[in-house]
Amino acid sequence: MPGLNVATGLTTRLIACFDIIDGRVTKARRFEDNIDVGDAAEVAASVYADGIDEIIFYDILASAQRRQADLATIRKVAETVFVPLTVGGGIRSLEDMHAVLAAGAEKISLDSMAVRNPTIITEGSAEFGRQCIVQSMQVKRVPVTAEIPSGYEVFIDGARQATGMDAIVWARRGEELGAGEICVNSIDQDGTHEGYDLEITRQIAEAVNLPVIASGGAGSAEHAAAAFTEAGASAAIVSSLLYSPRMERTVPVAEIKAELAKRYGLPVRLD
């Protein structure tokens, strides 16, 4: 329910999300025009030292190139940070999951492949535990229809392919299949720095009994606070705030957390 984190005192989480191409972090706007940020291990070390709670690593070309995720870069990042690391991209089987977990990941993110083969969620949950499986969703505002009653449709393949699936229906289905967490990526808000799509984040948080990660659009600590207090998110991806070339000013993790705690009274992990 919205406000759950505040009411229960559960620590809210800030997450850095890395879109990786050839071992380097990139940053896009609405899933297009990726700009190079820097070496993945170096960027990871920087945000880890500043107090980030978790890192999500997406090998964004792995699926399109029909290859496994970049295990060498995963190892370098895992050796650099000591917070939970989630990996997505190029994961098509239990063997792929075993490989990325052996490389240092703690969680698996399933997106386009889960839409094509939903049983991979169940297989991963049975093999590694529900807490290991993150259902990642790319969602976009569309006209409300009988097929898309929420007004949000699920897209796959880097937001290029519409599925005809309603986001709420898919979130509930993912929970039934065994997902332990849901990451809601707003295509409309991605890279805009104008705030998360609170409406779909709230709808999904109310529809499932799982932690929900808000993603796409963070431009200030105020935006993160809204994701927690107004939309019921358990975690918020704040990548653009930390290292986006499009931001006039990047903001340290510690500064974001200090504002969340002092101004909004949110429980955060302070080192």
From TrEMBL:
<dbReference type="GO" id="GO:0000105">
    <property type="term" value="P:L-histidine biosynthetic process"/>
</dbReference>
<dbReference type="InterPro" id="IPR050064">
    <property type="entry name" value="IGPS_HisA/HisF"/>
</dbReference>
<dbReference type="GO" id="GO:0000107">
    <property type="term" value="F:imidazoleglycerol-phosphate synthase activity"/>
</dbReference>
<dbReference type="Pfam" id="PF00977">
    <property type="entry name" value="His_biosynth"/>
</dbReference>
<protein>
    <recommendedName>
        <fullName>imidazole glycerol-phosphate synthase</fullName>
        <ecNumber>4.3.2.10</ecNumber>
    </recommendedName>
</protein>
<dbReference type="GO" id="GO:0016829">
    <property type="term" value="F:lyase activity"/>
</dbReference>
<comment type="subunit">
    <text>Heterodimer of HisH and HisF.</text>
</comment>
<dbReference type="InterPro" id="IPR013785">
    <property type="entry name" value="Aldolase_TIM"/>
</dbReference>
<dbReference type="InterPro" id="IPR006062">
    <property type="entry name" value="His_biosynth"/>
</dbReference>
<comment type="function">
    <text>IGPS catalyzes the conversion of PRFAR and glutamine to IGP, AICAR and glutamate. The HisF subunit catalyzes the cyclization activity that produces IGP and AICAR from PRFAR using the ammonia provided by the HisH subunit.</text>
</comment>
<keyword id="KW-0368">Histidine biosynthesis</keyword>
<dbReference type="InterPro" id="IPR004651">
    <property type="entry name" value="HisF"/>
</dbReference>
<comment type="pathway">
    <text>Amino-acid biosynthesis; L-histidine biosynthesis; L-histidine from 5-phospho-alpha-D-ribose 1-diphosphate: step 5/9.</text>
</comment>
<keyword id="KW-0456">Lyase</keyword>
<dbReference type="InterPro" id="IPR011060">
    <property type="entry name" value="RibuloseP-bd_barrel"/>
</dbReference>
<keyword id="KW-0028">Amino-acid biosynthesis</keyword>
<comment type="similarity">
    <text>Belongs to the HisA/HisF family.</text>
</comment>
